[in-house]
Design goal:
MoeA_C_domain_IV; single chain; elongated; Molybdopterin biosynthesis moeA protein, domain 3; 26 strands; metal-binding; MoeA-like; binds magnesium ion; six-stranded mixed sheet; 10 helices; Molybdopterin biosynthesis moea protein, domain 2; molybdenum cofactor biosynthesis; binds adenosine monophosphate
Length: about 425
């Protein structure tokens, strides 16, 4: 485990009052390594492996396909017949091979076997002429020699996955195609990493939980729901610690409890200028936490570091800590661009860079140089095939409906100024997390 000194040194290289997004991402990346000693692995059945992280390479126990078979409906024959034939090749049909019902005899020279896709290639046959190329009269077929080459339309044994070779690598997040692939290997169970445990809570005296009555000046806590949803989508185990009041004793209790019960602690609210002093003092006694003003909008204030459950920093159990801003859109943007990658890395997953696509801005956008801005956008494909993106309207960091309507973030790089209609911009599709 890296020491507190190393943590401070790592963070001190940057100006915490104007930390570029890339620098914040880099620091977080360095701190979010999966622990080498972390042997927390479990065996799960295929259905339960969906969206989990493979703990070890899966070596193929068989060849897939397990036998040479036909890629087409047609006629199988020995390719040597092509060399013997003239302009046309004439063969007589000796029998039929269906998927699961092989033709076991060896056809003679001048013979072929009617074959269906996936059927075992009959002995001595290495080529399949598709039925579309054939004219059949009774038990003989004829096709143009020039249309065929020996070896065509045959799937070779082991072509998809070869026995003894890695089929899926450790760190892979198991998706639909992988489940199918594992099944095709006859594998019913795999070793996956235990889920990362993430505790989260909201801070603010003004917050009420769904079900409570709103009093003047209070509002419902939505961050716990967006966080819950994004965390679930990432496949981590969630611990919802509710709403924490804006006082030192409540916050300290919540942080200690969270650190004891989770690998990562995420809070929202209480890190902006007014609150930061109050939380800063507490964080300093509980761990190594840096307060950053990230040069991004939304999401400027953010606290990041490590907390300890013991009496002093460096004692007891450690957990990585993200103190996100309170504004609902800022929570989602910082989660997407700062937290997401850390959680995936700590889960043991190989890097999953966000998909960045270029699109044409439909209208002008105000943008201040010196900070990265994440606007909410709706991207659609034009008739000419190009992607065009419009913003969702009011872009205030409290306007959650702007996230709901959007299907992507429009990422306006730090150095950039105002955008004109027709300019190229980068977009990041929401990718199932939001
Ligand atoms: P803060 O960062 O604590 O100053 O909060 C910034 C703004 O976000 C304030 O207007 C808060 O009321 C609002 N806010 C903070 N936490 C939440 C939450 N959990 N749900 C909805 N709004 C919140
Ligand atoms: Mg607050």
């Amino acid at each position: 485990m890296t020491t507190s000194k190393e943590f401070s040194a790592c963070v001190a290289q940057y100006d915490p009052d104007a930390l570029p997004v890339e620098a914040a991402q880099e620091i977080v990346r360095q701190w979010a390594m999966p622990r080498a000693s972390d042997a927390r692995v479990e065996r799960v059945s295929l259905h339960d492996a969906l969206d989990r992280v493979l703990a070890e390479d899966v070596i193929s126990p068989i060849d897939v396909p397990a036998f040479d078979n036909s890629a087409m409906d047609g006629y199988a024959f020995a390719g040597a017949a092509l060399a013997r034939g003239g302009d046309t090749v004439d063969l007589s049909v000796a029998g039929t091979a269906l998927a699961g019902r092989p033709f076991t005899a060896t056809p003679g020279a001048g013979e072929c076997v009617r074959i269906m896709t996936g059927a075992l290639m009959p002995p001595g046959c290495d080529t399949v002429v598709p039925q579309e190329l054939v004219t059949r009269a009774g038990d003989t077929i004829r096709f143009a020699n020039a249309k065929m080459r020996a070896g065509q339309n045959r799937r070779l044994s082991g072509e998809d996955l070869a026995k003894g070779k890695p089929a899926l690598l450790a760190g892979r997040i198991v998706r639909a195609s992988d489940l199918g692939l594992l099944a095709s290997l006859g594998i019913g169970e795999v070793s996956v990493r235990k889920r990362l445990v993430v505790a989260f809570f909201s801070t603010g005296d003004e917050l009420r939980s769904v079900g409570e009555t709103l009093s003047p000046g209070s509002l419902y806590d939505s961050n716990r729901y967006t966080l819950f949803a994004m965390l679930r989508r990432l496949g981590v185990e969630t611990v919802d610690l509710g709403i924490v009041r804006d006082d030192r004793a409540s916050l300290e209790k919540a942080l200690r409890h969270a650190t004891e019960s989770a690998d990562v602690v995420i809070s929202s609210g209480g890190v902006s200028v007014g609150d930061a002093d109050f939380t800063r003092e507490l964080m300093n006694s509980l761990g190594d936490v840096a307060f950053w003003k990230i040069a991004m909008r939304p999401g400027r204030p953010l606290a990041f570091g490590r907390l300890w459950s013991g009496e002093r920093a460096g004692t007891g159990k450690a957990a990585l800590f993200f103190g996100l801003p309170g504004n609902p859109v800022a929570v989602m943007a910082t989660f997407y661009f700062i937290v997401r990658e850390a959680l995936l890395a700590m889960s043991g997953a190989t890097r999953q860079p966000l998909t960045v696509i270029r699109a044409i801005s439909a209208g002008p956008m105000k943008k201040r140089a010196g900070r990265t801005e994440f606007q909410r956008g709706i991207a659609t494909r034009e008739v000419d095939g190009r992607l065009r993106v419009v913003t969702t309207g009011p872009q205030g960091s409290g306007v959650l409906s702007s996230m709901s309507e959007a299907n992507c973030f429009i990422v306006l790089e730090q150095a950039r100024g105002d955008i004109d209609a027709g300019d190229e911009v980068e977009i990041v599709p929401f990718d199932g997390l939001i």
